[in-house]
Predict the 3D structure of the following.
Amino acid sequence: MFRLQCVKCRKVSQDSYYDKQLDKVICSECGESIDDAPETTKRALIGIGKVINTQPKTSYMIECKACGKSGEPVLKDNELYCQSCGAKLAVNEFFKRTAIEHLNLEAKKSTRKYG
């Protein structure tokens, strides 16, 4: 296993993880990146599956033909729009209906009050 010393918390960690989005090794003790981790360690962590993905996953990712970026659509006036550039998204009716239902459900969950 890999023994890396974290500069921030000063602990030696055997249970580090590779963050795909940041392209860095993350200390399991404090959660900070270990900047001096060699490329071989990164590749080995990927090989054994100790990878975290900080990019949020969404059920309805759509690639915008206008800007080329992928993301969850934004709902305005019962139409789907790109969250990056605001262009109207061209999708089939079935996908549009299910995406709208999903976005409406997520909106209801986020406005629910607890307490």
In short: The mean pLDDT is 80. The first helix runs from residue 39 to 47.
